[in-house]
Automatic annotation (TrEMBL), chain A:
<dbReference type="GO" id="GO:0034476">
    <property type="term" value="P:U5 snRNA 3'-end processing"/>
</dbReference>
<dbReference type="GO" id="GO:0034475">
    <property type="term" value="P:U4 snRNA 3'-end processing"/>
</dbReference>
<keyword id="KW-0269">Exonuclease</keyword>
<dbReference type="Pfam" id="PF03725">
    <property type="entry name" value="RNase_PH_C"/>
</dbReference>
<keyword id="KW-0539">Nucleus</keyword>
<dbReference type="GO" id="GO:0034473">
    <property type="term" value="P:U1 snRNA 3'-end processing"/>
</dbReference>
<dbReference type="InterPro" id="IPR027408">
    <property type="entry name" value="PNPase/RNase_PH_dom_sf"/>
</dbReference>
<feature type="domain" description="Exoribonuclease phosphorolytic">
    <location>
        <begin position="220"/>
        <end position="269"/>
    </location>
</feature>
<dbReference type="GO" id="GO:0071038">
    <property type="term" value="P:TRAMP-dependent tRNA surveillance pathway"/>
</dbReference>
UniProtKB/TrEMBL annotation, chain B:
<keyword id="KW-0694">RNA-binding</keyword>
<dbReference type="GO" id="GO:0005730">
    <property type="term" value="C:nucleolus"/>
</dbReference>
<dbReference type="InterPro" id="IPR020568">
    <property type="entry name" value="Ribosomal_Su5_D2-typ_SF"/>
</dbReference>
<dbReference type="InterPro" id="IPR001247">
    <property type="entry name" value="ExoRNase_PH_dom1"/>
</dbReference>
<keyword id="KW-0539">Nucleus</keyword>
<comment type="similarity">
    <text>Belongs to the RNase PH family.</text>
</comment>
<dbReference type="InterPro" id="IPR036345">
    <property type="entry name" value="ExoRNase_PH_dom2_sf"/>
</dbReference>
<dbReference type="GO" id="GO:0009845">
    <property type="term" value="P:seed germination"/>
</dbReference>
<keyword id="KW-0540">Nuclease</keyword>
Length: 304, 258
């Protein structure tokens, strides 16, 4: 960035309109807020944005969730299909996680030119969910060696305004908690078919999964992204803040407070142990908050 | 999209009952529509503008189970490779989510709809108002359950209005399906699958001008006239709903600023 010198912009700021100053000198605009211990959207430095979870947003899916953190919006749906399990793991199903950033979500994504963040977040999500041990893949088995569930988990970013990984992980976890595995039977040809209520009486079919059931989620991974700038720590950055500050720390904890992973992909600020500890403490708080949102939504679903 | 098994490992979604399929729609006089609507009754439409904050303008709509979101970006710099142009350019793209259809799809771009959307909107936009630049209109079909293209077109015009792009009028679009002797308006997926013909009109209702008209299948002249009149009437009503949605969001914005 080519700021002529600090004194000059200082003077300009009193003459210029706020919006113009914000666009021309984003860093100075950002730092002026930090000096007052406030952020441009009016938040305290270490506070996350308002978060909402809505389960069952996609009617045609087996499990789905719509999550909003500030303006960042994620829609996740899980579709269950049947596959023949591989020889190495005949008693296990499979979970395929895909993160999509369609062109609608951000001005930087164009059709045919996927965003850089797309494969990165996709990989981080599958790593996190598989390594957290949240799901026992044996629960997705139907008939050992013959049939198992393939759960396609697709996350769509509908509005990208920073902290994409946090929102994507929360929506993936919410959709998994909402997932209902359909009741199925195996017919004479060895094909899995859905059972409707009338079919329940028929004895000819071998029932594989008698009732709709939910997955048991052992430990739930949740995360918080912070950005580090000088000595400041800012939780849950917006897209504007992410574009100004390049040092990110993403911490993923499970609900019992155990560390699952920690990403600090480079950046100009070297994080001291104390900064990392502060981030972990913030994440611990945030995870508790998110867990209570998630529990509230799930118990509301059960009442219905 | 069904039956494509290029992905590894091969998976299939379990059907309700193998062998016997659900009986196809009857084409007799006393037949009722699967969702219980009258033949000439549209699904209830819900519109909301400002769905995507990252975009210059956006809109979301629900027609029954068809759910669509459209973002508009720009006017912004045209691609470097583009020739100089005195008038603005319009760039459209329509894509589907992988879970939009009953059987999981690939979630790819829909080239045909993209170009249809472009042609449907082009005539309504005052392109001279943004020379040398491009306006991008991107649509994502979140859930598809029939009449996707007409819904995408209507929502896109609302999103353009939300972005403040100058237009001659809002663009509303409605289709009818011909099923035997009957004409059904705003068909759902099952009806589209067993239709004999379809007719779609995209128009600017206050100017009484049509920007796009497509007719496929077998039609008699009186049927075409009937279908066109049905669509035009429905478009006028749809545009009213869209206009009231715009007014609402404008008055909300005013309340906030005052």
């Amino acid at each position: 960035m080519s700021v002529p010198n600090a004194a000059a912009t200082e003077d300009l700021s009193s003459e210029m309109e706020v919006d113009a100053f914000r666009r021309l000198f984003p860093l100075r605009y950002f730092e002026r807020h930090l000096a007052e211990s406030i952020r441009s959207d009016g938040r305290p430095l270490r506070e996350a944005r308002d978060t909402s979870i809505f389960l069952g947003a996609v009617a045609s899916a087996n499990g789905s969730a719509l999550v909003k953190i500030g303006s960042t919006t994620m829609l996740t749906a899980i579709k269950m299909e049947v596959m023949i399990p591989s020889l190495e793991s005949p008693d296990e199903g499979c979970l395929a996680i895909d993160f999509h950033m369609p062109p609608i979500c951000s001005p930087i994504v164009r059709p045919g030119r996927p965003a850089e963040a797309e494969p990165v977040v996709s990989k981080q999500l599958s790593d996190t969910i598989t390594s957290s041990g949240m799901i026992d893949l044996r629960e997705l088995s139907l008939v050992g060696g013959k049939a198992a569930w393939m759960a396609y988990l697709d996350i769509y970013c509908l509005d990208a305004d920073g902290s994409l990984f946090d929102a994507a992980l929360l929506s993936a976890v919410a959709a998994l908690s909402h997932l209902q595995i359909p009741a199925v039977a195996m017919n004479d040809d060895g094909k899995i078919v859905l059972m409707s209520d009338e079919d329940g009486q028929k004895q000819a079919k071998e029932q594989v999964n008698k009732e709709k059931r939910k997955l048991t989620l052992k430990s739930i991974p949740l995360s918080l992204t912070c950005i580090l700038h000088k000595n400041y720590i800012l939780a849950d950055p917006t897209a504007e803040e992410e574009s100004i500050v390049e040092t990110h720390v993403t911490i993923i904890l499970d609900t019992s407070g155990q560390l699952i992973s920690l990403y600090k992909p480079g950046g100009p600020v070297l994080a001291y142990t104390s900064a990392i500890q502060d981030c972990v403490a913030l994440t611990r708080q945030r995870v508790k908050e998110l867990k209570s949102f998630l529990d509230k939504e799930n118990s509301a679903m059960e009442v219905e | 999209m069904a039956g494509k098994s290029g992905t590894t490992p091969a998976t299939y979604s379990p059907s309700l009952t193998t062998g016997k399929k659900k009986p196809l729609l009857l084409k007799e006089e006393d037949w009722t529509r699967p969702d219980g609507r009258g033949f000439h009754q549209c699904r209830p439409a819900f519109f909301r503008t400002g769905a995507v904050n990252a975009a210059s303008g956006s809109a979301y709509a629900e027609f029954g189970n068809t759910k669509v979101i459209v973002s508009v970006f720009g006017p912004r710099e045209s691609k470097k490779a583009m020739m100089y142009s005195d008038t603005g350019r319009l760039n459209c793209n329509v894509s589907y989510t992988t879970f939009s259809t009953p059987v999981r799809g690939q979630g790819s771009d829909h080239k045909e709809y993209s170009s249809m959307l472009h042609k449907a909107l082009e005539g309504a936009i005052i392109l001279d108002s943004f020379p040398k630049t491009t306006v991008d209109v991107f649509a994502l079909v979140l859930e598809s359950s029939g009449s996707d293209l007409p819904v995408v077109i209507s929502v896109a015009s609302l999103a353009l209005a939300d972005a403040g792009i100058l237009m001659y009028d809002l663009v509303a679009s409605v289709s009818v399906s011909c099923l035997g002797k009957n004409l059904v308006i705003d068909p759902i997926f099952e009806e589209e699958n067993s239709q004999d013909g379809s007719l779609m009109i995209t128009c600017m209702p206050s100017r009484y001008e049509i920007t796009q008209l497509t007719v496929t299948g077998e039609w008699s002249t009186p049927k075409i006239n009937e279908g066109m009149q049905l669509c035009l009437d429905a478009c006028a009503k749809l545009a009213k709903i869209m206009r009231s949605c715009l007014k609402e969001s404008a008055s909300d914005a005013q309340d906030e600023s005052s």
